[in-house]
Design brief:
The complex is a heterodimer of chains A (225) and B (85).
Chain A: E1 2-7, H1 14-21, E2 26-31, E3 42-45, H2 65-75, E4 79-83, H3 85-92, E5 99-101, E6 109-117, E7 133-140, E8 144-146, H4 149-157, E9 161-165, E10 178-182, E11 188-191, H5 209-224
Parallel strand pairs in A: 1-2, 1-3, 3-4, 4-11
Antiparallel strand pairs in A: 5-8, 6-7, 6-9, 9-10, 10-11
Chain B: E1 2-9, H1 16-24, E2 40-45, H2 52-60, E3 66-73, E4 82-84
Antiparallel strand pairs in B: 1-2, 1-3, 3-4
The chains are: A alpha/beta (225), B alpha+beta (85).
Amino acid sequence: MKFGVIRFPGSCDEVDALLACRRVGESVLLWHGDRDLQGVDAVVVPGGFSYGDYLRVGAIARFAPVMEEVAAFAAAGGLVLGICNGFQVLCEAGLLPGALLPNTSLRFVFRQVQLEVVNTDSPFTQTCAPGQRLSIPIKHTTGRYYLPDDQLARIEAAGQVLLRYAPGENPNGSLNDIAGVCNEQRNVFGLMPHPEHAVDPLTGPTGGLAIFESIHAHVADGALV
Amino acid sequence: MRARVLVKPKAGILDPQGQAVERALPALGFTGVRNVHVGRLIELDVEDPARLPEMCQRLLTNPLIEDYEIVEADGANGGAGSARL
């Protein structure tokens, strides 16, 4: 399968994302100013500081030409993974519910966190076991997941919360310890932790690999049908 | 028209920046200050002020987490006097 990783002005994790994708398939770089997704099977919106985080994190990137294509791709059921700044962009674009606010500590946090897989019935977590722990790093200043109470109850009931920070691990004040959510159709997923930084035993735990393996398994299953 | 858009965190959402400022003021002897919120000021010249609310909802603010107020600024530099639209 082929992944496409978007590069915006200010992206900084797109190369790690490309390499992480290559552990399970092929990957190509997509330029923010292009309207061509190059026939990829899944799109990764990577971490960084797209457009300098001007105005609000993710607010400007959603108007990039490539994002129109990503929105159409997602509407047609294509898999889209947003990591950190990518998660913020997908929320601003309305492809995911909620918003990311400054950490309650007002500090940049950079550390390894333990995550719990809440729902395995998704293309992004299907190779995990329910309750499985994943050790993945975080590095952000604006990662406090927020959604008004009524909508929060709705996404919880619909099983859209795929990952939570393990008890006592919440690094940013996210409501309900939410680390990653998907859309109602479960083909768009965003998370603040960086699975692409946790795929090589040379540099630490490999908890992030499960996300890429799940996407690969989902696409491979689809190809068989 | 010269307009100012005042953006602030939506009521009820935790505002750690406001809290930090509120905690810092007494250290300088400024007591009796409460409910501090830190937001953002956007100034712009617009030909059609009627379109300002749409600009606010689609780009200048995120309505999920922010409230805004549009204010008309007197004079080119915004002046001291201003009127709510």
